[in-house]
Design brief:
alpha+beta, 11-stranded antiparallel β-sheet, two-stranded antiparallel ribbon, 6 helices, 13 strands
Amino acid sequence: MVVQQRRCGGGALAVLALTVAGVMTVGSGCSGAGGDGGDGAGERVAGDGPAGSPAAVVGRAAERLADAGSAETRTSMETAAGGTRVTIRGQGAYDFRRQLGRIKVVLPKDAAGAEEHRPITELLAPGALYMKNRGAGVPDDKWVRIDTTSLEDGNLVTGGVTDPTAAAELLRGAGGVTYVGRTELAGVTVRHYRGTADLGRAAREASPSSRGALAAAAKGFSTDAVPFDAYLDDAGLLRKVRHRFTFATEGPAVTVVSTMLLYGFGAPVSVKLPPEEDIYTGRVQQSGSGPETP
């Protein structure tokens, strides 16, 4: 099953187009964290299923991450539309207890391969996404702030990085989960699960700070079904998760694969949100287009 967004011409896709300004147009793709998350680890599957319901094991992922406190992360968003494939990568650290993180997002060259883009620094916070180096016309010392509860996708794809808490909380709505088998991921033995997450159910069961964004996503998609692959270690910690989204557009369908890799649990995370005077309130200019509001 795939996910299709209702108002695909605006909202998440429009904001995402600004995030990847100059890389591609909405008609040729969005962006989504996908591919291999930059881990480069192959899978070796063996037998030995775990005890307990696979859905219950996966559904506890967000709680286990909060218990662990924090982790380093690598992400990728891979978009495919009309034969065009674009990958956006990110790396940083995230505090699951405070739900704060800092990730540097690296954009690919433009379609002609002629333009380099400065990395975008993203600060993730409950209900908010802060971005530096996002769009032409924004001063170098200013941040763009986006209210994630107002986004049609709840920031599942908008920023080019799926918020780590949202990615884990989405698994609270897991159903039809099957245990694929044991595998090795970046030197760690993990259990591979596959299933479909229900956005509406995930929003209802999410923690209060995540409920708003997921509820927005549940309203913004035409179907609540989100296929996923999740990899958990023997302690129940989520090591890797891949979600698959498909957006319907006026042109070819846009497939977004969002992947998050977690490692270095317990790593210190220092995130200071910018003060109000450092927030840009003007218009953000997308390369090759007219001005847009942030």
